[in-house]
Amino acid sequence: MGTLQRIKQFINYIGFTNQKFEKIVGFSNGAFSSQLRNNKTIGVDKLENILSKFPELNPEWLLTGRGHMLREKNIITGEAFSNQPPNLIPLYDGTIVTDNPAPESIYSTDAYKYINAGDWFGDATAAMRVHDNSMPQYPTGSIVAMKEVFDTTLIVYGQDYGIETSEYRIIRRLQKGKSNSNLLLSADSSERWDDGTDKGRLIHEPFSVAAENIKKLYLVLGCIKRNIII
C-alpha cells in the first residue's frame, strides 16, 4: 500500500468523500481521485497541507505505513475500532462560542476526536460544543450536529447555522441582509440588559456579516445534551 492508498484509507475512516477531502485540503476538483486512479506520486507540499488540516493523522504512518493511522491520543483500538461505523465526524471542543471571538488555535484543524453521529444525524459532517445561552435551544455544554454547506445558494433563511469567519465561530439564525452581499445573524435569546446605559437593549443583538467573510457554513441538524442527576 502506497501513500495515496493510505490517504484513501484515512478518507474512508473519517467518512469523507474524495470530493469533500479535496475541498478541505485545497486540491483542485478531482485531483486526488485522478492521482489515486493513475497511481501517481503526491508532492511534499500537498502532504504537508494534508497533515496541517488533519493534525490527528500520524505522519510516519502516512509516509511509511509504520505505526497507527492516528496519533497516539486519537487511537481507537481493538473491538471498538472494528465496530466503528463509516460516518465518523470530527468533534471540535470549545469551538462554538456564540458571542466572543475565538482564538485561531480552535479552528477546524483542531478536532480532538471523531464521534459516531448516530442514525439520527447520518448526514452530519461535524459536531461542536456550545458554551453560552444566546441560543437557548442549544444548551450550554450540549453537542451540536451540523452539516457543512458548500453551495450558499442553498441557504434556507430562518434556519440555524454554524458560521465560521477568521475571528469567530458562532451559532445564529440566518436571515437575508440589507444587500445580497450581507447576511443577518440573529440570536434566539430575548434577554435584555437590566441596567446601565444599555438598559432594555437585547444582550445578543442581531448583526450583519459580509458573505465573503464567511469561511465555512454549517446547517445545524440538532443537538445532544446530557442531563446531570444529583
TrEMBL record:
Q: What is this protein called?
A: Peptidase S24
Give the species: Elizabethkingia meningoseptica (Chryseobacterium meningosepticum)
